[in-house]
Design a protein that fits this description.
Strand content: 5-15%
Structural class: alpha+beta
Number of helices: 31
Shape: globular
Bound molecules: coenzyme A
Radius of gyration: 35 Å
Oligomer: single chain
Distance between the termini: 51 Å
Length: 750
């Protein structure tokens, strides 16, 4: 199979390869060419995809008279260019178009030569005429991509691949016609195609099969699972055999082409990871070959025999899980156990659910416990007064206020109500923004391309946001926003904005842009707008209206947040944490008399579990207590004397001289560039004196850092390097003799 039939000899006609960088560059270059044309020529190019806009005409694209010269024939240009992948031929795309091109635009009234149309050129391209340059360029990109796929389908040997290319090409052409972003609506179904996905199943696998292991080994298995997922993601599927009747594989292959392979070079399509959209069926198909390949890479990660054994265990168990009919990891409802070392952070789900219910009911009771809710709802819920939009949310819940999206239209009947509301809102805006010309406000509010989110109270608009959506550009411009004077600072502005955010998330737009004047910047900041713009300029320049003296601000929306509920959710979360702490505190309320043994002067140390109350702190988690106890079997005093002994011996060794004090800039001016965490024996002595080394691990880390720093900065042939090795060996010996700690010396280089 070929990508775009370039470099045929290298790729071979039926040999799928990973897409090469130079091929992507070539596509990029190809896309660049039509963008260099004059605007009218761009419109000519796109006209072939532009259906006739006249009522009842079914014509799907402009067709010139056969004898007329054309601006360019896109398909042939791409064919020419793609048949040879070199810069000279690639520019044939533009040269050939120039050779055939007309030097002036098509007259607007020239009729389309399709017999069932015959309507004027202008009737086809009116939408392109209104489009900005950025939008035209985006459509030209899609046009080139559609042609690349079309060309490839013509030279593709494998029928299934050919069909997918044709399908995607047609799909892209449709998106040019409708001027909408290509959102894959595929006959083969929508992703995820299987549940659980490979990603979910591998997570289940790591949790279910290995949670009995200790933390270190579990983390190793978890790393293996991640690495295996990457291997699956980059795996190239084999082309099905021409005569293959394996329907399952054919379907998988076509889906993989559409979502995981073609989008790598056809950027208008959304690229997905196979592990996020496929499940067991897919993994079964590729498991033997992926594993063969991945195993050798994974073995390189194994530093010990134990890790090699773990890798074998991982692969054996995964194979069983993939083939077993009773495997739990592929069960949709499966809820695997969490390893015990994570348990301290978790609350039982049932407890959590009952807590949430309790908090919600309590809030309801507070809200409903009489009084005039609407005159001052916030005062009824004192602990919630920090949430600015809370009162507005409650008012909405009780039907006191409503939110409606309204707007003018040229081609559908508008409710009389909507007109009255639009009129009232433009009055509010004019009042609140006195420096804005009233006619200008009226024009935009009533412009059919603009929409208004109206806030209605007692059947009367008290504010609104006028906005314009640019779905193709992925953003919406907030044009005006106002709340009538006597209703301001009650949280309506915030709740209105939250509604607008939720509305846009539903419509897959995740960016707001607005020009805010100096008075409004504060408000917008509080609604999560910032002056840092993350959208690329070509996405919004030429679209959004530019206001002099105002600051452009952006708000990025997060799809998994329901903004109108956000403060309420945060409130519940805070309340849960508060109650859990209270719970814990009530269990620990008991006061102990305190330690008297030291006052009496008999003891210098006592075992940790003899301190009253300590064991109770670890109630229900005796493992953690055992761990703490094991980590602290010795007192700081006894550790100090052992470490001080070792440090003195190390300092007096003949190889210690390079490490006695910090490396100075005079000795090594570039030292800091390479060594981010310097360490030396003098610093270690100071740390020891200040009782910094509360356990031996900290001491060993610092000492090893001295040697590792030295070896990374110096050449192996230097005396410094050799001294580091000698002193490190000596240190390990003394550590074993004096402190009883054994360390593997394999890190020492010779
Ligand atoms: N500057 C700084 N902060 C402001 C502000 C401003 N101009 N207007 C409101 N805020 C603050 C509020 O004090 C509140 O802060 P808090 O939560 O810390 O208490 C927060 O922003 C939101 O207040 P809220 O009650 O939800 O907003 P609102 O109902 O008062 O409406 C406006 C806010 C901006 C719509 C309203 O003040 C207004 O109509 N202003 C005039 C028109 C305007 O400037 N529009 C914006 C540009 S088009």
């Amino acid at each position: 199979m070929s990508l775009i039939n370039i470099d045929q000899k290298k790729m071979g006609p039926n040999h799928m390869q990973r897409i090469q960088k130079h091929q992507l560059q070539w596509i990029h270059q190809l896309k660049q060419e039509p963008k260099n044309l004059e605007r009218w020529a761009k419109i000519e190019l796109l006209s072939q995809f532009s259906e006739c806009k006249l009522d009842q005409c079914k014509c799907e694209g402009w067709l010139r008279k056969p004898n007329a010269t054309t601006t360019t024939t896109t398909a042939s240009s791409i064919n020419n260019a793609s048949s040879n992948n070199n810069a000279g031929r690639s520019s044939a795309f533009i040269n050939s178009s120039n050779a055939n091109s007309i030097t002036r635009p098509t007259p607007p009234d020239e009729p389309c030569s399709r017999t069932d149309c015959n309507h004027a050129f202008e009737d086809h391209v009116v939408n392109y005429i209104q489009a900005t340059d950025v939008e035209l360029n985006r459509l030209l990109d899609i046009m080139v991509e559609a042609e690349i796929l079309n060309t490839n389908s013509g030279i593709e040997d494998h029928e299934g691949t050919r069909v997918v290319y044709q399908y995607l090409s047609k799909f892209l052409r449709n998106s040019i016609t409708t001027m909408t972003p290509p959102t894959m609506d595929i006959k083969l179904g929508s992703p995820p195609f299987e549940r659980p996905t490979i990603h979910q199943a591998l997570t289940n696998f790591a949790l279910h099969n290995f949670s009995h292991k200790n933390e270190e080994e579990w983390r190793f298995m978890h790393e293996l699972a991640k690495s295996f997922l990457t291997a699956v993601n980059i795996w190239m599927l084999d082309i099905p055999k021409q005569s293959s009747t394996d329907r399952e594989y054919n379907v998988i292959y076509s889906r993989w082409l559409c979502f995981c392979y073609v989008p790598v070079f056809i950027e208008s399509l959304t690229l997905k990871d196979p592990t996020q959209i496929f499940g067991r069926m897919y993994l079964k198909q590729i498991f033997p070959s992926v594993t063969n390949n991945w195993q050798s890479t994974a073995e390189k990660r194994c530093q010990t025999e134990r890790q090699k054994a773990l890798l074998n265990e991982f692969l054996q168990q995964l194979k069983i899980e993939i083939n077993s009919n009773d495997s739990l990891i592929w069960a949709t409802e499966f809820d695997p156990p969490i390893p015990s070392f994570f348990n301290t952070c978790l609350i039982e789900e049932t407890k959590l659910k009952s807590l949430i219910k309790e908090i919600k009911e309590e809030r309801e009771r507070q809200v409903n416990k009489g009084g005039d809710l609407f005159s001052d709802p916030v005062s009824l819920i004192p602990e919630m007064s920090s949430a600015r939009d809370e009162s507005a949310r409650i008012e909405e819940k009780h039907g006191k206020i409503e939110f409606h999206i309204i707007g003018n239209s040229m081609n559908r009947r508008i409710d009389k109500h909507d007109y009255l509301w639009l009129n009232a809102i433009q009055n509010v805006i004019s009042h609140q923004l006195p420096r804005m010309p009233k006619e200008y406000i009226t024009r935009l509010v009533f412009d059919p391309k603009h929409r208004t989110l109206a806030l209605i109270k007692n059947n009367r608009p008290i504010g609104g946001i006028c906005f314009r959506m640019f779905p193709t550009q992925g953003f919406t411009e907030i044009v005006f926003l106002a709340i009538t004077s006597n209703e301001q600072v009650k949280g309506y502005g915030t709740h209105l904005m939250n509604h607008l955010k939720d509305y846009h998330i539903k419509h897959n737009i995740y960016h707001f842009l607005t020009y805010a004047d100096e008075y409004a910047i504060g408000y917008f900041r509080k609604q999560a707008f910032t002056p840092e713009i993350t959208l690329r300029e070509e996405q919004y320049l030429g679209y959004i209206k530019d206001y002099e003296g105002a600051t452009l601000m952006e708000c990025k929306l997060t799809p998994n947040i329901v903004h109108t509920q956000l403060t309420s959710v945060i409130h519940i979360q805070k309340e849960i944490v508060k109650r859990l702490i209270q719970d814990k505190q009530s269990q620990m309320r008991r006061q102990y008399s305190g330690l008297t043994c030291f006052k009496q002067g008999h003891d210098r140390q006592i075992p940790i579990d003899q301190i009253e109350g300590i064991i109770e702190c670890y109630k229900g988690n005796s493992d953690s207590f055992r761990q703490v106890k094991e980590e602290n079997p010795e007192t700081v005093d006894s550790i100090y004397s052992q470490l001080s002994n070792i440090l003195n011996l190390v300092k007096s060794h003949s190889a210690a001289w390079p490490f006695l004090k910090p490396v100075s800039p005079a000795e090594a001016p570039d030292y800091q560039e390479y060594i981010k965490h310097p360490m030396d024996l003098k610093t270690m002595s100071e740390r020891l004196k200040s009782r910094y080394y509360v356990n031996k691990r900290l001491f060993i880390i610092d000492m090893k850092r001295i040697f590792n720093n030295c070896r990374s900065y110096n050449n192996p042939e230097t005396e410094y390097y050799r001294n580091a090795n000698t002193l490190e060996r000596y240190f390990f010996t003394k550590l074993r003799e004096i402190a009883g700690v054994r360390i593997q010396t394999c890190s020492t280089r010779t």
